[in-house]
Amino acid sequence: MSNQQINPASPLSPSPSLPCSPAPPLPGPSTRVRVTFATAGPLAYVSVLDLGRLWERAVRRAGMPLRYSQGFNPRPKMQFAAPLPTGCGGDAEWLDLWLTEPLEPAAINAALEGQLPPAMRLVNVELVPEDAPALSEQLAAATYRVLLRQVEFAAAEAACAALLEEESVLRAKRGRRRHQHYDLRQLLEALSVAPAAAPWTVALDMRLKARAGATGRPDEVLSALGLADAPRRCTRTALLLAEPAPEPSA
Amino acid sequence: MSSQLPASSTQQPAPSIQQPAPSIQQPASSFQQPAATLPPLSWESLEALLHRVQKPGRYVGGEFNAIHKPWDEVHTRVCLAFPDLYDLGMSNFALQILYDLLNRHEDTLAERTYLPAPDMIAALRQAGLPLYTLESYRPVAAFDILAISTAYEQLFTNTLELLDLAGIPLHAAERDERHPLVIGGGHGAFNPEPISDFFDVFVIGEAEEVILELLEAYQAARALPREAQLRALLRVEGLYVPRFYRPEYTREGDFAGITPLIAEAPPRIQRRIVGTLPPTPIRQIVPNIETTHDRGVIEIQRGCTRGCRFCQAGIITRPVRERPAAEIASDVFAIAAATGYNEIGFLSLSSADHTEIETLLQTLQQQCAELHLGFSLPSLRIDAFSVALAEGLTGSRKSGFTFAPEAATEALRRRINKDIRTEDLLTLAGEVFQRGWRTLKLYFMIGLPGETDEDVLAIVDLAHELRRIGVRFGGRKTEIHVSVSTFVPKPQTAFQWEALADAETIARRQALLFQHLRGRGLKVSWNKYAATSIEALLTRGDRRLNALIERAWQLGARFDAWDEWWNLAAWEQALAEIAPALFGSVAALREYFLYRPRTEDEVFPWDHLLSGVEKRFLLQDARRSRAGEFLSDCRETCHACGILQHYPQLRSPEWQCPQ
Predict the structure, then answer these.
(1) Average pLDDT, whole number, for chain A?
(2) What pLDDT, on the 0 to 100 scale, is given for residue B598?
(3) Closest Cβ opposite residue B372 in set A11, A74, A219
């Protein structure tokens, strides 16, 4: 999981469609803004590429001057700390944005007011040094809460206990590398199970490693638990950094 | 209860063909009271399905600029439906216009629905949940009016799927005032006969004004039984209520005309148009997931003066109305600010024909350079002016450039009224490659009236010649993409008297293309003839084809425009079951609708729906086609198509008709 450079795929179109002219090279330092945001409901079901587009558009609506890459196909400079899996909301997701003009957090907060989609909430805005390391490099783990329906608590408890007993749980990788395997158990740092209020029956809390090349996914844990088909609501509750780092206040 | 079951549950599909999933059944009690009281689906009930389906973002709404009006504070609730995937439907600008227009009305709310992909349809049916709207998650059946786009024929089976998934009886005759009033509109409504059983009303032409008149008439009549409601709607010009008309057939079974059954039903319905283009919707809904045309849209021009004889849109959108450049420019900035889009698409049938397009783009490009705002222009002509325009758009990044010569020989281009000389095309291609484009996309049709194998081989020669030119300027990486579709003779055009080319001819000509368009830098793609012939049937059919469409849908046909879901077996079986009783055989049915030669006095199933372009004019143009005569662009000289005569009171300065 390297830096997430947002890359809105250009829609297929038989007609020429391009930005009006190449952006001149951007002089001077830019402002790096770290936003903490939450998504839920409908926005849990978009991909991380979609989230990038949503943010680009929200920032444009807010009239904030995004820094774009140079060249003839300019992209805004944005980095998510970690891509949010499709099907998963987030309580405190981090995104770094680069602006071409200095703006104070209060002004950014005010500008974004009313410009976010209904299921997205701004939690915090702060400025970070231009040369601060990428969040993805500092990331160590993420915690998730998964609410389940139609699952008996005792069964879930037993499945969790059994999974934690295992020393190794091999799972197929996704996509083109699906013939290769990885050890999910090594990525699962913690797993607890509790009863949940109706309509849910079970709440799972899990902590999964989130390092480059070693990132656990909650749906893989559900599969390993034999709960792949259970109706669920998944939320990434926190992103955890490895070392003392700029601590976004929630 | 049984009377409310959609037909699919009461008829047994033949074995061995995919059986439609069980229909949603409304509890009988819910129809004893106004459907408007049907409660919204809970988020939790939807959430339980979303982890199982592809692209769940299609089914959840929550977009920026979507409008959520309180359900109980309006009198009339309209559900706008596009019967295909969200990704496609969100790109339909007509629904955006209506959404904006209806929601401006204090007493009305409009919400959206699309047809879910088969995986989500299955999940909804399995969970016993009906189709819902993306704003309030209300069942579609709870709305007063369900407006379904009939933009093109491949949406017809999807329309049945949509109604069934909504728990609404398919046939207008089975519905009453407790069900939504189901209205259709769009280009496909210029021959609505094959789907006339399923709709209560069709809007013929541009909906911006007539939809409000329809709402008003509906509101006044809403307490009445459905039949009386529909009678009340007959007072609104431009509405076609098929149940008040009866088709006539000769003893041989030839279609002989449509007759009103009641005095209030007008024998002919004239297309509605607007005199000036209504304001552009500014707060356009910004989808949360990527859609087919993921950009802001401004309709810069409606109509086209080119007069291509195969083109239905060019007839049924007349006259050309241009949005003033100043208005377009201010719309650009307003839409960019309201949506955050980094691209605005200019919508029209022939963008380069807008009289102010050049200065408009120059001005915009100067003003937008720092905004990272781009523009796209569809449907450019094949001329130097268009190449220069595209050059301005693209800076120096070069993606594909598109030409649509449609035919490769001048003789054939005369037949279709596409006034391009081959040498000009070659010169222009040189220009395009010289300016740095590496891919040239070419659109052709085969099966055109009067076409020979030599005309098709000329496509091959032209593609090779263009590739040579491309290599000279741009090296061996130059690519020529040839896209070949099969000509379908469309209703309301000069070619409506023409036949569809037969399977053997098209197979031979496709094989010629495939054989000779091989090698490095050449790509060729074409449509499957079987799908084209079904499309042609649905385009040209009469009321007898309602049964065919319904049967094909029962047998599993839907998403007819999608290769992965196209179900030829369902169509063939439906034809095999339906055709014998109507025409004696499948071949005879195809012969009747597709292949037989038509005389000039042919009565068409769409003759009662008037585009404003005279049938006499179309016939003259058909004769000119056979004589190989061009008809000039009617901006310079009026050819008296009939528009000026039929809409004199609507003429405005936006019209490009000569004085």
Answers:
(1) 86
(2) 94
(3) A74
pLDDT of residue B399: 65
Helix, strand, coil shares of chain B, percent, nearest 5, are 45, 15, 40
Helix, strand, coil % over all residues of chain A, rounded to 5 = 25, 35, 40
CB contact under 8 A, A17 and B345: yes
Give the range of the structural domain holding residue A175, as residue numbers without chain letter: 138-241
Pick among A6, A18, A39, A64 to test the B interface (most B CBs inside 10 A): A18
Same domain, A123 and A200: no
Structure-block tokens of residue B42: 């809970």
Alpha-carbon gap, residue B164 to B131, rounded angstroms: 9
Q: What is the CATH number of the domain that holds A221?
A: 3.30.70
The CATH architecture assigned to B24-266 reads 3-Layer(aba) Sandwich (3.40)
> What's residue A10's pLDDT?
32
CB contact at 8 A, A124 and A35: yes
Residues 359 to 388 of B: which have CB under 8 A from any A CB?
Answer: 364-365, 368-370, 372-380
pLDDT tens readout for residues B442-465: 999 999 999 999 999 999 999 999
Same domain (yes/no): A38, A71: yes
Q: Among residues A132, A164, A179, which one ends one of the domains?
A: A132
User: What pLDDT, on a 0 to 100 scale, did the predictor assign at position B76?
Assistant: 96
List Cβ neighbours of A89 (8 Å cut-off, separation of 6 or more).
A38, A39, A40, A41, A43, A44, A233, A234, A235, A236
What token pair was written down for B181?
A: 């009033």
pLDDT (tens digit per residue) in B357-371:
999 998 998 888 778
Burial of A176 (0-12, 13-18, 19+ CB in 10 A): exposed
Express each pLDDT in A196-246 by its tens digit: 999 999 999 999 999 988 899 999 999 999 999 999 999 999 999 986 655
How high is the ipTM of this complex? 0.89
